[in-house]
Design goal:
2 copies of one chain form a homodimer. Chain A is α+β, with helices and mostly antiparallel strands. The first copy, chain A, has 2 domains: 98 residues, Arc Repressor Mutant, subunit A (Orthogonal Bundle), CATH 1.10.10; 58 residues, Ferric-uptake regulator, C-terminal dimerisarion domain (Dna Ligase, domain 1, 2-Layer Sandwich), CATH 3.30.1490.190. Helices cover 35% and strands 23% of the residues of chain A. The longest helix of chain A has 13 residues. Chain A binds a DNA duplex through helix 2 and helix 4.
Amino acid sequence: MLSNMPNSSSRATTSPAMLELARMLASCDLKVTRPRLAVLKILKNSTTPLSVQELAAALPPLPTINGVTIYRILESFTERGLIRLVNLRHNHLDYELVERHDDHHHIVCTKCGLIEDFYGCGASKLMSAAIKNSRHFATVNEHSVELFGLCKHCVKL
Amino acid sequence: MLSNMPNSSSRATTSPAMLELARMLASCDLKVTRPRLAVLKILKNSTTPLSVQELAAALPPLPTINGVTIYRILESFTERGLIRLVNLRHNHLDYELVERHDDHHHIVCTKCGLIEDFYGCGASKLMSAAIKNSRHFATVNEHSVELFGLCKHCVKL
DNA sequence: TGGTTAATGCAACTTACTTGCATTTAGAAT
DNA sequence: ATTCTAAATGCAAGTAAGTTGCATTAACCA
């Protein structure tokens, strides 16, 4: 059923990368549409989390995707856990793809905004400890960890 | 010099609590003004981080504080490290007071939004490990950790 | 007690985001 | 393939959020 790609009538190449994106949508029970593929592609290829505006600016100019549609797509992706909002202390939230293993975090330079990824934060211990000590919580299954500091360049300034 | 409180001409009581707030501002090189005291008071007394709108709604109705002023106050407080923005996955950022020891984090119910605090996340180990493995970073001095799960009430639903 | 500079308030503006409704289209059934 | 239906998109309009410039006020230092 993934063979019926949007734009199947056009010259679109339906590359393996596009098939992978389509599979990601389908596995989240999201219909495979051109705007959704475009948004997902950008997030997949981005090395950093993106603001709505950055994302919108990165979309192909034609055929245009309505701004309203972008908001609705981001909302549906977030609902399905395909993407997530992260706070890199840039005074707004950024969207990023959620990976399977999901122990992906960031170090952010508080001066220039440089972002570096890191994986594995040992939060499973923390999560079980938290649940033990918690008054009101029954389960903890997700976590976010971000570190803030100065990159090698900014530390010299 | 803290004795010259704003509204010193009025009936304001200059309570010890207010003096404490004034001291917090002064120690950040922020002039002690009525709007700033009001904003700081709300954040100090709140048990949870607050959105701009929640904060604005919590301000005393009279004398009114202009919306522009609220934004500017929050900006100046953030610059001086008096407050900080946190992402509790409520689709917006919330402001909270920064405490001295600063190892204060949250567990958030992904269903009802309940927030519980926890302290001490053992991030110092993580931070030194991160700096060791980092390609681009020289120092890491702040961190944010939030946990997400289900509260005892929502887990039954 | 002034004087200086920063903070506030106000008006106008830009940008961000939402809502309702008409149109299109993906995906399932035939 | 063709048709059907619900969901997704686009468009127009509107609301809310956040910003900017400038005049006024007030904190706080000498």
